[in-house]
Each structure stands twice: as C-alpha cells, then as structure tokens.
Design brief:
3-stranded antiparallel β-sheet, alpha+beta, 11 strands, 279 residues, 5-stranded mixed β-sheet, 10 helices, ECO RV Endonuclease, Chain A
Amino acid sequence: MQPYTDIIISTITKFLPKGEAEWELVGFINKKKEIYAFGSDSKIIGRLFEVIAFDALEKSAKELGFLLHESDQQTVYPDFYFEKPDGRKIAIDIKTTYRRSKTAKYGFTGGSFTSFMRNGTKNIVGKYSDYDGHYILGVVYTRENEMSKGKISLKDVETIIPAYKNIEVFVQEKFRICGDKKGSGNTDNIGTIKANSIEPFVFGAGPFSFLGEDVFHDYWVNHPRYTDSITAKASLYNDIPGYIKWIQKKDNKRASELQSQYDEYLKFYDSMVQKEWIK
C-alpha cells in the first residue's frame, strides 16, 4: 500500500509553510507596537494555525481553478471549502493537537456523526450532498514550557519564545484517517486513528482506507449515539468487528467481503507497528 495522495493534497501541501519559522506567531500586536504573548491556550493556537494556512489554501484554490470560502460561523462545518466552477464543494477542516509526551499517542476529532451526516443539512454550509470530498489539514505541535508571557515591546520581538514548537503538518482525506471509535465517550464526534508519529496520518493509514468511503459513511451514520438507550446501543456496535457482525445479520456475503478487507488492514497495522509508526 502506498501513501494516498491526489491533486487536492499535493497542491495544498506544496503551498504550506515548510520551515518551522514560518509557523511561528509570537503574540498579538497593538498600534503602540506592543506585543502580548498569547500563551498556551489550544483554541487560540488552533485559530492561529488557520490564519497561517489561509494563504496556502488561497494559493491552492487559484491554481486549481476554484474559489476559496471560509465558514462565517465557528460551529458550522467545514472551516474552509473550495467551490468548483460547477458549484460543487470540497471541505477542508483544520485540526490541531499537541504531543503530551515523546511517546504518547495523539489523534484528532473528525467532526460530528449525528448532524449533517445523518440529515444532510444540520451545522454545514449548504448540503452534505453538495460536497465531492472531505479533507483534514492537521497540525501537530509540542507545547513550549519556557514560553514568553505578558507584554513585550516590538523592539524585543526576537527575544519572544513562542508557545509551541516542533510543528508537523499533513493533508489527507478525512475518511482515510478516521477510526472506528468516538473522539470521547460523552460526545458524538468521530475519532481519528491515534499514533505517536505523523506518518500514519500522511499515509492515510486508517481502517476505512481498506474498507472504503461508503463503509465509513454507513458505519458512522448507524453508530449508536451518546443519548441512545442501552437497548439501542446493544443492538448496534462500537467497533468494526461488531459492525461486520451487524452487517452479517442482513448480508452474509457482504460481511465476508468486509472481513477480508479488515484482515488486510490488520496486517498493515502490524507493519506500522514494526516500522514504529505506532508503538
């Protein structure tokens, strides 16, 4: 299996900042030329990465012959989207996370599975059916313990220690990096795969890369919701083996096909462990 790429991934990747210095923002500045260090708040840092990525997305849209749009509401999917000449859309969500240690696994959230994926119009720009693709631009960083704090004069800008370091970035189709577990137990968000290196995300090494985007969609639109009753949850599934058994009740042949595809993924997963992409 080769890393998955396409014209969207390669174009955005080409325009993203390559050096760490290009990702370094050190604070907010006022007209008095005073800089206020923004600290380690992950929401602020995530928004700053969106600001940095905007230039790359704008250049990518121009090269691809698309228009770039940004959602005007924070709670509406996606963060950005390309609009094709025929009006069709390509979603681009920017996700950030930080490494808790050198060995700890990290992951992202892939968005809700109970809103637009189920009814087509809730919390999304336009309709879910308007989109030809869904991509995640992921940024991983390490928190800086010795970061600068407070107000600093512009003349001392070179002394400011940013709140983050060790930036790594990837662009990948969403379904290819999503896993079969929720992002957290008390929400209805899709969780991505987890790894302690960025390679599986660059590769697109999730189970649905083997099972397919249609299976990804079917898995999550039928996955039990947090608010479902115990009876409802018991009748469904919480992982891919459970999903295959659920399919088997309706279509034994299809379940057998899915099991073969999932077995191939498990072999590939073992190879990632051997490469120490996942520990």
